[in-house]
Fold:
Amino acid sequence: MPFCAHKCHYCDFYSIVDRQDRQDAFVDRLRRELGALAPAAGPLDTIFVGGGTPTLLRPYLWQRLLETLAQRFNLAPIFSGTGEFTIEANPETVTPELMDTLAAGGVNRVSIGAQSYDARHLKTLERWHDPANVARAVELARAAGIARQSVDLIFAIPGQSLHEWSRDLRTALALGTEHISCYALTYEPGTAMTARMARGEFAPADHDHEADLYEHTVAALRDAGLERYEVSNFARPDAACAHNLAYWRQHDWLAAGPSASGHLSGHRWKNVPRLDEYLAGDDAGFAPIVEHEPPNAERNLAEWIMTGVRLAEGLDESTLIERAGVVERGAPERLASQIAEHRESGWIQPERLALTDAGFLFADRVAADLMGCLRP
Ligand code: SF4
Structure:
């Protein structure tokens, strides 16, 4: 969903500022794309609509889109309650009418972008919403019967103290949602945030402070009954995001909309990012593709390592070693010795190939080390 009310300074997702003049054309095009993709799909276990700001789309357009999904796809898992249908929501744009429309179309989970409750930090991020509207959005979703909610927060914002972050966490926990995501602020190339940092407008949080904030996050959420199941994601038992788990476990998924990327039987592809080109290109309904990577044993395994290491469940060690042997003859031996080394330093658990609490602080390093073993 490519539309946003404005561009937040830290964001490197594809989005354009919405003037409401292209929503109709976009939805028509998306419906054609969904129609083209439908024959490739079995019953849908999960749907995730992200963006952009999906809740900016007007309710009558949502209704059209939801009708297309119901007509073209088998949504039995979702309507029977075993499946998951998530919409990302901006607190400012949640209305009773929209929530009722979404709930009637099968949406059973909303992920609400709170980011911070502190007006000063929201300003640093150039995030425009009234923090009070987060609770209102959760209530409206509940009132419409959307039973599952998640809240997104950002930490390590320049100038943010441990005390302020702890207050954000407590405020989010008071909402009683089953899921909270906490992302460390990153400075992506080409974003306004990165340019402001380069101009010296602020200094990024230093590494030790960021680690303190993260460790506090894990402890505070654990105390409240939300366990970390991925580096940045915390949930009550059985409330992990099934859709994101499918990404991280390298299952198959289809992609629709500008800049969306899909994964099917080892193939990866990405739709054209620009809305104009997405609207103009129509190959029997399919969107123009800008990147396609055919199956490749080494790349597929490296992707599994990269996402699997970040999960609390970790990776199946014997499957990893076996797949590494297909990539390169010496890889299993190198992997076994690298895993043993990280076990010794206390970053990988003794019994399973999964990070320890200490290891989670070095997840990217562990993943890079394991990926490095795939080559001589
Ligand atoms: S609302 Fe989300 S997608 Fe849109 S600019 Fe802000 S962070 Fe990016």
